[in-house]
Write a structure and sequence with these properties.
Chain A contains five helices and five strands; from the N terminus they run βαβαβαβαβα. Chain A is of the alpha/beta class. Chain A has a five-stranded parallel sheet, with helices on both faces. Chain B has five domains: 118 residues, no CATH class; 101 residues, Beta-Lactamase; 71 residues; 140 residues, Heat Shock Protein 90, CATH 3.30.565; 205 residues, Nucleotidyltransferase, domain 5 (2-Layer Sandwich). In chain B, the strands form four sheets. In chain B, strands 6, 7, 8, 9, 10, 13 and 14 form a seven-stranded mixed sheet that branches. In chain B, β11 and β12 form a beta hairpin. In chain B, α6 runs antiparallel to α7, α9 packs across α11 and α17 packs across α20. The chains are: A alpha/beta, B alpha+beta. Chains A and B meet through α1, α3, α4 and α5 of A and α6, α7 and β13 of B.
Chain lengths: 123, 711
């Protein structure tokens, strides 16, 4: 059975594209458009990996990341931060808060897939 | 010839001499008579009988010649000498340019000529001294004008104040920037400038001075209540003993630059964000279209629409980013390179100020420098710490360290506890920064924005406690050391303005013991709707002038009209001419009194018949929540204390008595100025009467009032 990836982004176009890409490559996907939705989705169906945008309304990606790591039940979910926020500060902060990888938009699909496979041990 | 016959006088001496001559002649005759035998006595008697008339005539002649001699001496010596003495006395006191008219004997005339010569010499000397004084004064004035000119032309604001913030000197630009409420000599800077920031900077300067070879001037950004952002440099003025006697503050207006940078950076950030996002979507979609095999036509169409939409968005964002970049200005302001070690030291000192906290810090490598406005960033971090672990409980132990991460420096404060909720965090960003009971005029968000810095809290793990991590920009050490800005005051007074204000003075007992001539006073007067404050009459005009170091400062006046709650009474309008029409568009009493309170803050109030005006200030100020609790001097009572014999102590009467011309009687400012001038003229008279200090003046006023009330 394929691994489950939760895609969290407030941009519907990207969600459509990513969903297609991941499903094409044998992953199951779930989607969330906000931080709260993501946390609810994780509580209901534990994913193997979260593709997490940082700039989300209300609860941002950093906060979601921190909460995932704080909860013993979700602590070992893989997190890939996916953001249009470049810059040292955001990357350092993201990694500080427990993200496994930080990918800056724009990225290549091949790069994204290889990082996901690497993190999920299905390379 | 009139002779004074009292003992010791010239007339008495003449009379005594005549009596002695007659007595001597009689005694000689008697002694000679005793030595004669009877025959000789008979012969002598015969001789006397025959030559008696001749002898008597001779005696008379001797007396006459003697009298004439006495008269001659009197005219030639005694009277000229007496007049000479009077003239010398006039010459010495009243009229040094007058010369003595020679008269009497040659010796007396010679003496007068010598005295005249001596007077000429003295006057020549005096004129030369006066000439030199005039020249020196002229040079001093010239120097003063030059210095004023330079200060006025400087693009920076310059202000000198003592360590308590009392203003000693300022230039026009400083007045413009700081001027609401208006600043002035002798007043406190801290009514317009953040007191917490001022004290912290002063503390920092003092701490830097203790370290040899350290530049003691500090730079920081100060946000004024009106919103202006001033890049401020504080440098100490040192006494020869190296104690801080005052500070020079140099201001540069960073408001516009800051706003431009802020707008520019925000715009750039937004456009880049949009661009990245769009290009990200484009790339992902294009790659799917390229790589996916057997894409259903519906899906393909959907992706093509995404491409169309996102490429437009990306194009627009690119244009806007280019425009924002063109308008971008490099950052200015107080954020400058400083050694990370200095910053940690400052930070540790501030953290200790939070309470009983065990603060340890690691000394970073000397080549590690950060870009920071040390004062602001330390305040921001301390604020965050106090929010992360609020008292009671609070922080017990904090460990500070700095590490380099590429172009950034991470400042870690270990020991803060768990991270805050996002909502709380967002609220802290916006609330006014409050540190150590003092609210600074800025926000966390502003400080971090200016630094291009960010912060977050690392959650406590098994081994580590919670850590506040602040990421600052790294900087290289500046190639050239900054110039030394310390100014050492010479032993004598500097040439400019009232440096006497340096003498350590505080409120309370020290103020009470201050000589009247050194008091900083606000002389004021009100015009009112009528004469019955208790019955509802109100202030309609308020005028005030300032007195500093025995001088009336023409440049520092306060003059406002007030819109009253009731119409002025016609009999009052006849006096001051302020009718309802003029007052209709004026501000209300609350606003004007609040402004006046700031103008008069830290000064002694002076007014004529102050009881009336104070009653109004108390009644109307009370309603607006404004208090006037400084000492008050009443020129009416002080006049009573100096001239208890005079019956009339109205303003005009005192003014006339003391030679004060009132310009603008029955205008608030005119009467305030008159009260000020009267107070200045009264001061020396009060001193002569043994009333030298504020406490003594208040006591004398009380006494005068009591006497007056007893009638």
């Amino acid at each position: 059975m394929g691994k489950t990836v939760l895609i969290v982004d407030d941009e519907p176009s990207l969600i459509v594209a990513l969903q297609f890409l991941l499903e094409e490559n044998g992953f199951e996907t779930r989607v969330a458009f906000s931080g709260e939705e993501a946390l609810e989705s994780i509580a209901a169906h534990r994913p193997d990996l979260v593709l997490l945008d940082i700039m989300l309304p209300a609860v941002d990606g950093f906060e979601v990341c921190r909460r995932i790591r704080e909860n013993p039940e979700t602590r070992d979910i893989r997190i890939v931060l996916l953001s249009a926020l470049g810059g040292q500060a955001h990357i350092t902060r993201g990694m500080d808060l427990g993200a496994d990888a930080y990918i800056t938009k724009p990225f290549s699909n091949a790069e994204l897939l290889s990082r996901i496979r690497e993190l999920l041990g299905c390379a | 010839m009139r002779l004074n016959l009292s003992p010791g006088s010239y007339g008495f001496a003449v009379l005594l001499a005549a009596a002695a001559a007659l007595g001597g002649a009689a005694l000689f005759g008697l002694l000679a008579w005793r030595d004669l035998d009877p025959a000789e006595r008979a012969a002598a008697g015969e001789l006397l009988r025959r030559s008696g008339p001749t002898l008597a005539l001779g005696g008379c002649l001797v007396l006459l010649v003697g009298g004439m001699l006495v008269e001659w001496i009197d005219r030639q010596y005694r009277r000229p000498l007496g007049r000479l003495r009077e003239q010398v006395s006039i010459l010495r006191g009243l009229s040094p340019s007058r010369r003595i008219r020679p008269e009497g004997a040659a010796e007396v005339q010679g003496l007068a000529a010598e005295i005249n010569a001596l007077s000429d010499l003295l006057e020549a000397r005096r004129e030369s001294v006066e000439e030199r004084i005039r020249a020196a004064r002229g040079e001093l004035e010239e120097e003063k004008r030059l210095l004023s000119g330079i200060l006025a032309e400087l693009p920076e604001g310059v202000l000198v104040c003592d360590p308590e913030g009392r203003i000693i000197l300022y230039n026009e630009r400083a007045r413009q920037w700081l001027g609401d409420p208006p600043i002035g000599l002798g007043r406190s800077l801290l009514s317009v400038f953040d007191p917490g920031l001022f004290r912290q900077a002063l503390e920092d300067v003092a701490s830097r001075l203790k370290r040899a070879g350290r530049e003691p001037a500090v730079s920081f950004a100060a946000r004024l209540p009106g919103g202006r952002l001033l890049h401020t440099t504080m440098a100490p003025l040192l006494a020869p003993t190296r104690e801080i006697r005052g500070v020079i503050l140099i201001f540069a207006d960073a408001t516009e630059a800051d706003e431009a940078v802020c707008r520019g950076e925000e715009a750039l950030e937004t456009h880049f964000f949009t661009l990245r996002r769009s290009v990200g979507i484009l790339r992902t979609t294009v790659e799917i279209l390229r790589d996916a095999k057997g894409l259903p036509p519906g899906k393909r169409r959907e992706f093509e629409e995404i491409l169309d939409r996102e490429s437009r968005t990306a194009a627009q964002a690119t244009e806007e980013a280019a425009a924002a970049w063109a308008a971008h200005r490099p950052p200015t302001g107080a954020v400058s390179a400083m050694p990370a070690g200095d910053f940690l030291e400052l930070l540790a000192r501030r953290v200790r100020g939070l309470g009983e906290i065990d603060v340890r810090r690691e000394v970073p490598h000397p080549t590690l420098w950060v870009r920071a406005d040390g004062q602001a960033m330390a305040a921001a971090i301390v604020f965050l710490l106090s929010r992360l672990a609020p008292p009671p409980g609070g922080l017990r132990r904090i460990h500070c360290r700095c590490t380099r991460r590429e172009h950034r420096v991470l400042v870690d404060l270990v020991g803060t506890g768990a991270p805050p909720e996002a909502a709380a965090q967002a609220a802290w960003e916006r609330e006014p920064l409050a540190v150590g009971g003092v609210t600074l005029n800025t926000t966390l968000a502003e400080v971090f924005r200016r630094h291009r810095a960010s912060w977050w809290v690392l959650p406590p793990g098994e081994s580590a406690e919670g850590t506040l991590r602040v990421m600052l920009e790294a900087a290289g050490p500046p190639a050239i050391p900054p110039p030394r800005r310390t100014t050492l005051l010479a032993g004598s007074r500097p040439v400019y303005y009232d440096f006497d204000l340096f003498a350590g003075r505080r409120a309370g007992a020290a103020l009470l013991d201050q000589p009247l001539g050194l008091l900083v006073c606000t002389a004021f007067d009100t015009e009112t709707t009528g004469l019955d404050p208790e019955g509802g009459d109100e202030i309609i005009a308020l005028g005030a002038v300032r007195i500093v170091n025995g001088r009336l400062l023409e440049s520092e006046v306060f003059e406002r009209l007030v819109r009253p709650g009731i119409d002025p009474r016609p009999e009052s309008v006849r006096i001051h001419g302020l009718g309802p029409d003029i007052l209709r568009d004026q501000p209300e009493a609350g606003a004007v009194l609040a402004e006046f309170a700031r103008f008069a803050e830290g000064t002694v109030l002076v007014a004529h018949h102050a009881a009336f005006d104070m009653r109004l200030l108390t009644l109307q100020g009370g309603r607006a929540g404004v208090r006037f609790d400084q000492p008050v001097l009443d020129t009416l009572l002080l006049s009573l204390a100096v001239h208890p014999g005079h019956a009339d102590h109205r303003l005009e009467a005192i003014a006339e008595r003391l030679g004060v011309t009132i310009r603008g009687r029955h205008t608030a400012l005119g009467d305030a100025r008159a009260a000020a001038e009267i107070f200045l003229r009264l001061t020396p008279l009060l001193e002569k009467a043994g009333i030298a200090t504020l406490a003594q003046a208040l006591e004398a006023s009380r006494g005068a009032l009591e006497r007056r009330l007893r009638g």
